[in-house]
Amino acid sequence: MVKEKGHLIVISGPSGVGKGTLIKIIFKNIPNLSYSVSVTTRKPRKEEREGVDYFFVDEGTFKKYIEEHKFAEWAMVHGDYKGTLISTINETLTDGKDLILEIDVQGALEIKNKYPEGIFIFIAPPSWEKLEERLRGRSTEDEQNLKKRLNDARCEMEYKKYYDYVVVNDELEKAARKLEAIIVSERDKCKKSQNSL
Ligand code: ADP
Ligand code: 5GP
């Protein structure tokens, strides 16, 4: 029997809005999900691990990957290169698993062009104040990079109209339930349409 292909689930939103936190919760509750580990030129944070959070490379290597057409999408995000490997998408979807891409708005539009059947979800902050509070509270960025991320957030919010769903991350558990409901209902939709053929 041919394995049913997995879904591509794209999650975007401003830095510090809570994407990573929400994704960790849904991974505990939804089976058969996989996370796309991106390639980046950003320096690893203290707790980040190679091959788990990112594949950390230098700029030369990243540019070589671009020339070798290894990326499904790539972008300069808050001053660093970041990209999604085509091999990750192909291998995971063929294996019948749903793949989460946590990528910025530029990358998401590129993916939408190439994989229009994907599910596109934007995570929005309840307010600018809360976004800044969360980003500062995470203590991962220096002041200059933090300001850049908050400034970029204004522009990123303009892109939410291109997404299928917008989830406001106000109360964490409520937002996680909404995200889970979207994924589960999209999976059901697909099953129903296959059964009706
Ligand atoms: P992102 O992955 O979008 O950059 P994170 O998941 O790292 O954001 O979250 C940024 C910070 O905000 C973290 O310290 C996290 O614990 C906190 N956070 C996430 N969601 C909420 C929420 N709903 N309420 C309060 N704090 C939150
Ligand atoms: P951080 O530096 O905090 O890990 O991530 C900052 C931003 O980079 C996040 O908004 C995240 O979605 C985005 N990002 C992470 N990986 C990729 C990727 O492979 N491609 C693109 N376009 N953006 C990414």
Structure description:
- With 197 residues, the protein is α/β, with parallel strands linked by helices.
- It has one domain: 3-Layer(aba) Sandwich (Rossmann fold).
- It is built from 7 helices and 9 strands.
- A 5-stranded parallel sheet has the order 2-7-1-8-9, with helices on both faces. Strands 4-3-6-5 form a 4-stranded mixed sheet.
- The protein is globular and about 55 Å long.
- The two termini are 17 Å apart.
- Adenosine-5'-diphosphate binds at residues 13, 15-21, 134, 137-138, 169, 172, 175.
- Adenosine-5'-diphosphate binds next to α1, α5 and α7.
Keywords:
21% strand, binds guanosine-5'-monophosphate, binds adenosine-5'-diphosphate, 197 residues, Rossmann fold, 4-stranded mixed β-sheet, alpha/beta
